[in-house]
Design a protein that fits this description.
about 120 residues; mainly alpha; 2 domains; two-stranded antiparallel sheet
């Protein structure tokens, strides 16, 4: 059984949290090709969220090629290039970090202070 944890206080939409965690489980080997994902109804009950939210996440995973749904059988992990997935995730992180640096500079915070803040966060 896969473990997905939803952070309701996060600014990240719940369906995106599900997508990110499934992708990470695939990359880390926690989910392998042909593993079955929990049914939409099961996962929505488990996480106490709308089935539509889970369906949206599964549809996105399918659109991006990470999952395959077999009508009447369930949703399965597709064959995925984990190296490519890692690169995609690194690129997303890089873009987020770039935005944070630009925001710090707009606020007039020095690059050294930004680096110090980053180091503090990494220690946390």
């Amino acid at each position: 059984m896969i473990k997905i944890i939803i952070n309701t206080t996060s600014m990240v939409p719940i369906y995106e949290q599900i997508i990110d965690q499934v992708k990470t489980l695939i990359r880390n080997g926690g989910l392998k090709e042909n593993d079955i994902l929990p049914s939409v109804r099961t996962l929505s009950k488990e996480l106490k969220i709308s089935a539509l939210t889970v369906k949206k996440a599964y549809d996105s995973l399918e659109d991006e090629g990470f999952a395959v749904t077999v009508h009447g059988k369930g949703t399965y992990v597709a064959s995925v290039n984990t190296e490519l997935l890692l690169e995609e995730q690194k690129k997303e992180l890089e873009a987020d970090l770039e935005q944070a640096v630009q925001k710090g500079r707009r606020y007039g915070i020095s690059d050294d202070d930004i680096k110090s803040l980053f180091d503090l966060i990494m220690e946390g």
